[in-house]
Amino acid sequence: MTQGIEPETEPEDLLLQEFREACLQHGLKVTHQRLEIYRAVASSNAHPDAETVFRQVRKRIPTVSLDTVYRGLKLLADHRIISVVGVSDERVRFDANVHSHHHFVCTHCGAIMDFNAPELGEIAPPAEACRLGRPVSIQLEVKGVCAKCQELERRS
Ligand SMILES: [Zn+2]
Ligand SMILES: [Zn+2]
């Protein structure tokens, strides 16, 4: 394994480039605040909630308010630049991965992890869902105990 050699373009640069393009597409101005909000969501694959995003953004913009972060998240979510993860938790979480994917939700520690399952794209939406509207995609939420929590359980 060769490790430690960073390519010229760091993943983060690519990420921000993607963000700029998405904003352009949606006619949104790329402001410093929005960029930092997006960075906070996208640089973590932990599907952070608004307060976690706020704490991250505050490191770079000390004057930012929680309200600004909330509004920024909502704006980005409204334009589908990020997505909202609907977990059965009172706290809404955000996801910069807007490509089709599914979630494994740990009922123990609350971790939300992405997984892909192309075969699910071939499943027809349930008839009941079709009665409610025109389905566009199906996102699965698998609940369980994550590997980390299983390991902790095993050790105790
Ligand atoms: Zn867990
Ligand atoms: Zn996700």
Order of helices and strands: HHHHEEEEHEH
Shape: globular
Helix percent reads 40-55%
Question: What ligands can be seen in this structure?
Answer: zinc ion
* Percentage of β-strand residues: 5-15%
Report strand order across the widest sheet: 4-3-5
Number of helices: 6
Mean pLDDT: 87
Just name the CATH architecture of the largest domain. Answer: Orthogonal Bundle
**Biggest sheet details:** 3 strands, mixed
Spell out the key features of this protein.
Arc Repressor Mutant, subunit A; Dna Ligase, domain 1; 2 domains; 3-stranded mixed beta sheet; two-stranded antiparallel ribbon; 6 helices; binds zinc ion
Describe the structure concisely for a colleague.
The protein is an alpha+beta fold and 156 residues long.
Folded structure, characterized:
This protein has two domains: 11-96, Arc Repressor Mutant, subunit A; 99-156, Ferric-uptake regulator, C-terminal dimerisarion domain (Dna Ligase, domain 1, 2-Layer Sandwich). The protein starts with 10 loop residues before the first helix and ends with a helix. It has helices spanning 11-26, 32-42, 50-60, 66-78, 127-132, 147-155; strands at 83-85, 93-95, 102-106, 112-115, 141-144. The relative contact order is 0.11. With 156 residues, the chain is α+β, with helices and mostly antiparallel strands. Strand 1 and strand 2 form a beta hairpin. The structure holds zinc ion (ZN) (2 copies).
